[in-house]
Amino acid sequence: MKGSLRIRKMEENITKELLLFSDKISFIHDKNVTHYCKEAPFDPPAAYPELPFVKKINKENSVYPMVRNLLWKIGLDAENFKTENWNPFKEIIKPGDKVLIKPNLVTHIHYLGQESLYGSITHGSFIRPIIDYVHLAQKGNGSIVVADNPVEHTDFESIMRFTGIKRMVEELYSKGYDGLEVVDLRPKVLKEAKNGEFYYDSQIGDPLGYVEIDLGGDSLFAEFDNKPNIHYFTLADKTVDHVDPKFKGKSATDDFHNSNSHKYIVSKSILDADVIINIAKMKTHCKAGVSLTLKNMIGMVYEKNCMPHHRPGIPPDGDACPFYPASHYIASRKLYIKVLRKWLQIHRFPGFRAFRNFLQRNRILIGKHIEHGNWKGNDTIWRTILDLNRIAIYADKNGAMCEFPQRKYFAIIDGIVGQQGEGPMNGNPVVASTLIGGFNPVMVDALAIMKMGIRLDLIKSITEAIKIDKYKLYKNEDHFPKTSTLEHGGLNFDVPLGWRQFKN
Description:
This protein is α/β, with parallel strands linked by helices.
């Protein structure tokens, strides 16, 4: 009996591996789809034969059929499309499965105003068709968890209201989607006291807790293990002086990444899932170049200090910036943060935030120095991104790294409204009317990057992913399509300041 169980488990893992490295990938562009449906719960615009349990329709919802058509175009149960038997997720989802939907819910604010949030975060109308087709594949037996770990200061309830996710989930749950829930994975939220000081407020976070995973020598950071005086920084770490670009002291992140270990603290809800559906936004990113499906998995962490974002200093030992700024620039930053803001609380003056947003929007008196790894020379963040994606696919429920994939995976990029420029939170919204999806995150991201008009060879999360020998994210580097064979095109996204001179 034990032998047959082992064989069955191996067969399941081989199936997951074949799906991960499947060449099923496609995109869809519909210039008529330029906005999201605002009426929750975002019912489809027609009665589809495969969804008899969906009783209401909303003729204004153009997002739903676009997602539906993408699933068909990828080739998911294509022979049954437009029949009552169509079940696009039947290859990856079975009754009883736990499905984790990972959207991008990074922040609740945007300096251009709330409407610009559509380019930053995943809207509920995009999640709704995914939930319906997961529910269909589960045959009503299983759980669906929509979960993310936004930046520390994000007001999660505000996101739930703005995106309509809260109302959508409540209504679907009342209609028989029994295993559906939304989870804010953060164990703590950053808040501001009246005196301008910041503090952490604890909350439940992931109800399943967390798992500590040490990749050790298999981490992509192991390359630095024999180099002296290596430090790792992340802006979530409040023990570091982020105002001083020459500060190179020990950080909280160094406790996780050093010559002895490379640890990540991961939300157990991610590892407990049988299937991950990664819903990313089509965005540029100041540190990584782009924020797509690979970058979106950073939201799986439980403790943000475990994620290196950059190394202090300038090349070759650091990658925070290409060169140090002038002393007067550093002095002006310290004056604002440590005097004007902390002691005079200028940020609380009436009209100050609107004035600051005006300056930022029009790029007036805004420092243009590159810092905190916000440039093409960042040689750190891609390692964190790829380490976490390997964990998401190869770590078992207890955090042990395994030879075969431990869960099935599907990726989809929402480019109906994306974001360009200083992403992932401070860029400008751009209507791209494009969706991209498939089983392999490296290929899905590569296609998106080419569509965005960005040079593929500049994005290390792609160029380095295809070289990985252990816990692979792409099967064979030699088989990776050349840029000439990928879809070029047309969208011409603006890249962040630190990447601007390298776009073409």
